[in-house]
Amino acid sequence: MSTEPVVTDGLTKRYGPVRGIEDLSLTVRRGEVFGFLGPNGAGKTTTIRTLLGFQSPTSGTARVLGADVTDAAALRAARANVGYLPSEPGLDEGVTGRRLLAYHGRLRGDVRSEELLELFDPPLDRKVGDYSRGNRQMLAIVLAFMHDPDLVIMDEPTSGLDPLKQEQFHAFVRAEQERGKTFFFSSHVLSEVRKVCDRVGIIREGRLIALEDVDDLLHRSGKVVRAEFANPVPADAFAVDGAHDVTVGDGESAATGTRAGTTVSFTYTGPYEPLLRRLLDHDLVDLAIEEAPLEDVFMRFYGGGVDGDGTVADVTGDESRAETDSDETVADDGERDGEVSTGAST
Ligand SMILES: Nc1ncnc2c1ncn2[C@@H]1O[C@H](COP(=O)(O)OP(=O)(O)OP(=O)(O)O)[C@@H](O)[C@H]1O
After folding, report:
1. pLDDT digits 0-9 by tens, 73-98
2. What domains sit in the chain, N to C, each tagged with a CATH number?
3. Which tops the pLDDT comparison, 80 or 252?
4. Atom of ligand 1 nearest to the CA of 49
5. In the 8-state DSSP scheme, what is residue 189?
6. Please, which residues bridge with residue 243 across strands?
7. Cβ(19)–Cβ(206) under 8 Å?
8. Strand 59-64 with 6-15, pairing
């Protein structure tokens, strides 16, 4: 039996006739931050809910910390060492954050809530029902980590956090990884995955379409080059090896403020020397070379669109999230082991 924290083999979940995930085989290695990336409706949440035992697979297998997800007793024991951070935590609205914290502490242990509250500080004496989205998410973070689990499964964990808290959360995840913790991290925000993940699995329409190191993805993605010239350059001047998506415009130059020059932009995956020589053949007045956004990479290698806010667009057009599977009546409450009201943690 594999000792890796998460192992799925041919994992399939259908909601009646509706596709959830199909034939998903992946391994999350101990100590890695694994990004699970895909557009809306791709099957990320379905995967997570199946891993946590909220719903049964239609076929295939999955093991979490060695426990078969269909073995309720084994999974319950394993989940004592799993943190779960949902995207929209189903917290008990009627009690204060402090009470919820105490309840969770009694349920699974509290070895570090004080330390966590220094970083993520929801107003504990207010009722959770009065919390802002960001405060709910911060409380959910504390609840997910307070028992110091070895594996944390997170579904779009930074949705609702302001940019500063998002940064803090990313730094926290990296520090936790240093402590040997493992993360399964679903997101449709590519820039986030790039910041914290070691490997990424890309899911689309229920199927895993790519599995690779984030570094490899970035290497293949190359650089975005934007150059401005004092004089017009021929349209084919940058049709060189390694240049993709070359756009030549003679619009207004940001550098010179005139309309005389030419602006050129393209993605470049080749070596610098020939590129720089080519640029200097013309009257270069401004140059920017930046890392290509993963959004572009996603589009170039895997197809599919990206919204203006840097998230992968819904390429499925799937509006069929209707309840179609009777075994979901329990699962949709969040937990099937009687922890419904405080479903933000394991
Ligand atoms: N309880 C359910 N009943 C019926 N269909 C469902 C149910 N849950 C999910 N689905 C369907 O399964 C597919 C995958 O949805 P899922 O929520 O797993 O995607 P996702 O990648 O998490 O998307 P998002 O980023 O929008 O949360 C979609 O077609 C969705 O409509």
Report:
1. 999 999 999 999 998 888 888 999 99
2. 6-81+150-218+309-337 (3.40.50.300), 223-290 (3.30.70)
3. 80
4. 18
5. B
6. 268
7. yes
8. antiparallel
